[in-house]
Amino acid sequence: MASRTLYGLVLAAASLHADRTAVTFCGGSGASDGSVSLLYRDLIQLSEELSRVLVKYCSPSSLIGLYCSDDLLVPVWILGILQSDAAYVPLDPEAPGFVAAKVMSQCGIKYCAVTNGLVQQFQASLMEYITMEICVELPKFRVTLMQIESRPVAKGTDQVRAQTVDVPGYKGLAYVLHTSGTTGAPKTISAGDVVFLASPLTFDPSVVDIFLALSSGAQLLIVPMVMKKMPNRLARLLFKDHRTTVLQVTPTLLMRFGPRILQQDVLSSSSSVRVLALGGEACPPPALLSSWRHKDNKTCIYNIYGVTEVSCWACCYKIPESLLLSINPPSSVPLGAPLMETVVEVRDEHGCIVSEGEGQVFIGGEDRVCLLDGEDTAVPGTKRATGDWVTVKDNQLYYLGRRDRIIKRNGKRLNLDSLQQLILSLPQVQACAVGLYEGLRLLAFVVSSAAGDQMAASAFPSGSAQPDADVTSLILKQLSLLLPSHSVPDALVLVPELSLTPHGKVDMEALMRTYSRQRGLRFSQAGDLKETLLTGWQEALGLPGDVSIDEQSNFLFAGGDSLKALHLCEDILSSMGVSSSNLLEIILDGTFSDVLHHLTWLVPPEESSTSIAKSKKRPASPPTGIIGKRAHKSTEMEEEKLGFKVVRRASEVMEVNTRKADRTETLQVFGGKDLSRSANMSLSLSWSSDTGRCVDASPVIVLRDNQRSDVPKATVLIGSHSHRVQALDLVSGNLLWERVLGDRIEASAAVSRCGSLVVVGCYDGCVYFLCSDSGETRWLFKTGNAVKSSPAVDPVSGLVVVGSHDGHVYALNPQLQLCVWKHHCGGGAVFSSPHLLATHRRLYAASLGGQLLCLDLDSGHVVWSYCRDTPFFSSPNSFCGHVVIGSVDGNICCLRDTGELLWQFLTEGPVFSSPCFVPEQQTLLCGSHDGRLYCLNCADGSLVWTFQTTGKVYSTPCVFDGFAAGQKGVLVGVASTDGTIWILDVRDGQIVTSHTLPGEVFSSPVVWGNILVIGCRNDYVYCLNLKSEPKDV
């Protein structure tokens, strides 16, 4: 019976293939770049050794959480847990803490294995919801076993009682995702295969990939998540370096490779891929599959279907070669026959079995059971509704789509998935996703064939072969010939690639944000009323921007309809910020000139001739010269001559070639109306950028003087746990350049005194000096451990000072590319960022060993030291000769310039936040893990006011002038870890506005003018607009 368990299957394979490679982990772009492997004998030996440890510390028949990222030892951890008579429950380290806490509570998890690199993150994100105690640290396995217990009341989680999974007759539980079963698979896998682990552990296809490989003596190939987002590198790794033979992916992930790679590598005549299994989404039509496939290709292509609640795979259809070679292939592929011990039924809306026609799929079987939320027992034979609708024809099931993807439009039925498949069949289209914007506007997001190949081939794509307007017009013209008017998309949005969820499916929410951003930018760039109307008129009719409009033309006669007229009406009124009950009627019955005349009447005379863009969410147009590195013509010396500003967290500003000092307290603003207190302020999304992993770093804004304009060229610099550094246009969010470094990036960047270098620390122990124009490496300095400290730049000498987890502070000269001095900080890593006082030639640095040091900036010699015996995660800051820092013991401490403690203020939680000063009021601001932001008197530390957030305050506050946002006086922005950004009046702590992001936030906000930028743990960096409107009287 042992062989019937997952571990037993792997053990049997290992006995036959002990000396074969079981697992390969590749962190780079090829086999010669960081690939490490385990043999089957090593895999079994390590997993058995781990299981003995788990048996010693864990209760029998328990569930053990697995909190990890991609690693060579993933199969060791899983098999070790299974061999210890336990089941594993994968927990997503990228998800908010309350999500993992809810899973733990529902499953009654008492133990969790946490990879060593994520222990600090695990503790920080979950300490509010669970109590935790380290059972044992296992360096050999790079994992720490923790005993956990849910707190009596876990904020942010549902009040769900902990339930131990107990399914009568189904002992031997292997894993808990949302199901408890294994699946049938094509029985074509052998010891010579290489199986790619495409899915995260929290997505059930990962179970198929892992045990399909390891039960067959095959090799399991694992790569970091970030590599899965780089099509060209991933293709080289899979198909050239490791010759992958089994590929189970979603169609969207497959299509990201682009036609060129699909034709030349994946489905070429010499392709290494023997089995291509497509699931999770509708299978591409046979004609499209055939266009990728060489006539001599031998790859077996499967359409697989299933739902997590019952089985990862429930149906499987091997697409016959005859179908792929057919001159007139069908538009869709059948779902196929049910797998072993699986029952599939189709029922209509009344619950009756359907043998021909449309209905909903139900899946179950005697051995296909699961427990859903609130269920204590599973009834064998239960069939679960899938929510998927199919057509039954000739005993085959053809996928129609989700119920909510079949809509009525203008009173007529429209299947969004069928429309998507039709668009996908056009030769100009490589990938496509169709959705409804705000429940009404029909959008098609399209990756054009030329753009797709370009994205796959280069990290820095240039313009497409055809102008976007031509491609859009051509596609819409073809659709108008193929479809009735109600099925033609209202807008076709060209994107470089389709955004994906962590499970590899289309991220429709991210695509909708892209559309909203592009649409807002297009209207904001329109000038007067006529240009605004012209822009909306062209977009509603699907016309290119260079097409002229006759002022006497009627909207309906020009190709519009009532639905498009409604959209145009909404767009115009929204962009102008006015209301009109007559506008829709005028658009339908009148001319372009009539509509323009009506709008002129709506807008006050003093505003009708000015730029509508002044009321938009962002400035009217991007500053010239920041579209990309190719557009940048000035030399580094010219840039320095022009001058620049660097805006960082805690309201720090470094200015070069200006008449101001190197540090200012209140930021200069772009402009705005002073609406004083009689205004309502709001925070709204301007743009967001996907970095690939959590963004804990804080952004840096660089503003360069512009020879051709009074508006500075503005760039956002930020790093991510995906190993990436991104340079983004502050106004539009366009990616200027991107670099992938050697490991995670948690530290915020800095800019050298000359302005030509971006300086950033990395988990690989290196400090990178990158060209500010292109991201190319100019110099790399290696420390002895991870660099999570943000560099500080001396505006006088140009020295860059940075701390390392090796316990040292380094002073680096980027011009000479040498280390001027280094100093050991007395024990413990240097996590916090050094702070320098250039005018006094002093440097302040703190360590996790509880040391706060004052060093001579030029020599590194100790001036004084202060020991607290508790770690300093907070970064020091100074004001009027006093140094302030937060401590893990809950105190905010102020020291004289001689190193003597002047005062301390006790909060009710650890202080990881760093202090920020309000010079005009002689006060300071600092957050605490007790969830409060504190405003203290600088002189004596007395409490001025406090504000309670809805989470913990890890980030550093940012003080800024409210003028640009239409508010009189000074404001403070701060984020709580639950994702909420708060804007407060700095005088009394009263809330002005707030905005919640869809993820946890450990990044600190940075504000310039009316723009706020911040990172989020949902992988995105966000740009938000601060805007005020007069209150209704």
From TrEMBL:
Gene name, Swiss-Prot/TrEMBL: AASDH
UniProt-listed InterPro entries: ACP-like_sf (IPR036736), AMP-bd_C_sf (IPR045851), AMP-binding_CS (IPR020845), AMP-dep_synth/lig_dom (IPR000873), ANL_N_sf (IPR042099), Beta-ala_Activ/Resist (IPR052091), PQQ_b-propeller_rpt (IPR018391), PQQ_rpt_dom (IPR002372)
Protein name: Aminoadipate-semialdehyde dehydrogenase
Signal sequence residues: 1-18
Xref: PROSITE patterns: AMP_BINDING (PS00455)
Top-rank taxon, per record: Eukaryota
UniProt keyword Signal present: yes
Keyword Lipid metabolism on entry: yes
Stretches assigned to the Pyrrolo-quinoline quinone repeat domain: 691-1026
Start and end residues of each AMP-dependent synthetase/ligase domain: 14-366
Alphabetic keyword roster: Lipid metabolism, Signal
Coiled coil: none
Record-stated family: Belongs to the ATP-dependent AMP-binding enzyme family.
Pfam families, A to Z: AMP-binding (PF00501), Beta-prop_ACSF4 (PF13570)
GO biological process entries: amino acid activation for nonribosomal peptide biosynthetic process; lipid metabolic process
